[in-house]
Structures are given as C-alpha cells and as structure tokens.
Here is the input.
Amino acid sequence: MQGVTILGATGSIGQSSLRVLRRNADRYRVSALAAHSSAEALAELCLEFQPDYAALVDVQAAARLRELLAASRCPTQVLEGQGALDELAADPASDVVIAAVVGAAGLSSTMSAIKAGKRILLANKESLVMSGALMMEAARAHGAELLPIDSEHNAIFQCLPEQVQTKLGHCDLAGAGVRQVLLTGSGGPFRKLPLEQLASVTVEQAIAHPNWSMGAKISVDSASMMNKGLEYIEARWLFNLKRSDIEVVIHPQSVIHSMVSFKDGSVLAQMGQPDMCTPIAHALAYPQRIDAGVEPLDLLSCGTLSFEKPDPLRYPCLQLAIEACWQGQSATTVLNAANEVAVAAFLEGRVGFTAIPKLCEKALAALSGEACGTLDDILQLDGETRRRCGDWLTQVGH
Ligand code: NAD
Ligand code: MG
Here is the structure.
C-alpha cells in the first residue's frame, strides 16, 4: 500500500486524482488532503477517504472543518496554515505527493516534498516556472522523483526512452536520439475570434475551454496561451532543453497530447481522451500501468487531426513566455507573478482580457533584471512584482 498526499485536493486536478485513487484502492491509500479554504468540500472527502490528516491554509476554514469532522466522528486530524501544507508534503507516512495547488502558492509545499525525497506528481507548473534550475537541482540532490502530470509533459515523458525518463532535469536528449520536442496546444476558445474582439471577451467565454475542463486560472491561461508559454518553460526544465529543441504546435482537437521527433525521422505521439486521469494514473503507477477509468480513444470518431503555427499577434503571452524562458530565472519569475495578478484581476472583472499581456510585458521590462540565485531571491522578486503590478493594473485597464 502506498500513501498518497494531495495538495490542492478540492480542485480540478485534486478531483481527478481522487477518481484514480478510488479505482485503485487496493494499491493506494490517501494519507493527507490539503486545500485553501473549502471546509465543506474537504470534510466530504475526509469522510470518504479517511486520511490521517487534512489541512486548510485558511485558519477559520480549518476550525469549521474540525467542527464538521467532529460532528461526523471522523478521526482525521486537522492542521492549518501554509506551514501545514509544507509539513504534510514531507510527512514520512506518504510516498507520493500530488502537487496540485494552483499558482505560486504551490512553490513552498512542492519544494518541501522534493526535499523529503518523495515521488512528486507535478501539476503545479507555476512552481517550476518560478524556480527552474533550483527545483531540478533539489530533486537530484534529495533523490526526489519528479513526474509531470501536466498532460503535454506527461505525453512527452511517455514518448521518451527510459534513459531520459530516469534523468529528468539533466537528461541528454541529443544523446538519446531526440531531434525535437513538439509541444501541442488547442489554441483555446479564441483561436478563430476576430482579433479586434479579444479586448472585449467575457470571463465566461474565456473559461469555456473547447476540450478540457479545468480550474479558472488555467482556463484563462489556455485562452491567452500563457498556459502554453508556462508549459514551454516547464518543458525546458524537465527535459533540459535548448531553444532549438522545442516547438509549439497548435492542434485544435487535443487528441495528440504532445510529440517527440527523433533523429531517424520517427515522430512518437501520445494520444488519448482529454482526461487528466490518464496522466495522473500513468505517473502514479510508473513504470507500471493501472486502470484510470478512462475510455480508450475511439479513432473512428476522432475526425480530422489538424496542426497550425501559433499566430504571435493573437497569442502575445506565448511569445513573452518564450522570450522570458531564454532570458533567465528572474524573467520567468516576474512573468508568472504578473500573469497571476492580471488573471485574478480579469476574473474579478477589473481589467479586460488584453490587459494580461500588457501587464506581463510592462513587468518584464521593469523587473526582470534582478538577481535570482536563491529561493529567497525568487520569493522576494515574486512579491515585488505582485506589488508593482497591483499599482500598474489601472494603467493597463480595459
Ligand atoms: P483549481 O483552481 O481547480 O484548484 C486549485 C486547488 O488549490 C484547490 O484545491 C485550492 O483549494 C488550492 N489552493 C488555491 N490557492 C491555494 C493557496 N494559496 N494555498 C494552498 N492551496 C491553494 O486548479 P486546477 O485546475 O486543479 O489546477 C491546479 C494546478 O494544476 C495548476 O498549477 C494548474 O496549472 C495545473 N494543471 C491543471 C490542469 C487541469 O486540467 N485542471 C491540467 C494541467 C495542469
Ligand atoms: Mg497542460
């Protein structure tokens, strides 16, 4: 029996993870569940999965959770505060940590799991975007096994030979015969929208992803293709890429989840339903395979698969991310923080959709030269960027 901890248990990835665990209860037990403030949702999960611990960042919500569990005589112990997530991530009772908190808030607990040498199923791409080399180096130093469950990176991982899979972060792609990694993305809900209408799209339109059902932040990122930009940076670190090693391809049907092209002319693709249970099950059981509860792809009903080059005018966020990736750690930290501020403001109806790239560009120009050699530097730059972006929001406006 392996113990599994889910950080971000009430979110979209958390729910998909629990679906996989429910089906494989003979192999895995839930040792801890953590989330931000949703006491009712977490209480329900505690009653079903009976973890040893549950944690909420929000202190009042944790008190509510304690009451709910006491009323149902559930023995799960409740912890509170950000420190509780870090503690649970390192708890010896769990073998696997699913890092599914959204945004920079996931950095500290992901690092904690890495330092404890866990198998980490990484959904929280923002933490890797922020800490890049530091995270990959920490994983190597502490013998942690970082496995991507972001569907594209999991697809790339599945297409790569074992000699690469077992050396993420410091693998030699050329030595393994790899020519290029082809990162696919659907292009989001605005792929065909006339460009002049982008400024006035609504939140509802932006979060209505054509193929995947996900949390609000990543849905907006998918519409702007900042998600693909963050994934580009994520791939750079996971697979130790050079600029010429990776290309982004729009594939609107999301049947292929990404590809690897080899020296001999072979191109391997991982295909499947757009269901996160597949990459989660893959990484959970790797190198074995378990039932994810996902129907196989019905090729006869897939229709035509098409591919396009991303248009830089439509997707300025993608371009900003690609440039930031090769500029260095401070640029990607600034980009991530600025994007989080802009997306939160967009979701609250305070700025328009096209303010997102404007704010990111402004932040990159002003802040990305700072030194970023340690985790403290990164957290400081993240905080500084958020403060400055808060002030600039009114300037980038609607
Ligand atoms: P979500 O918004 O549905 O869920 C987020 C979870 O994080 C919730 O459990 C919430 O309680 C918790 N959380 C939020 N703020 C927190 C904080 N400050 N401290 C601690 N916990 C906090 O998000 P999601 O769609 O599940 O995405 C989670 C992560 O997985 C993101 O990094 C996203 O980019 C990545 N991801 C998601 C998908 C997907 O299909 N949803 C696919 C690939 C990658
Ligand atoms: Mg993805």
The first helix runs from residue 12 to 23.
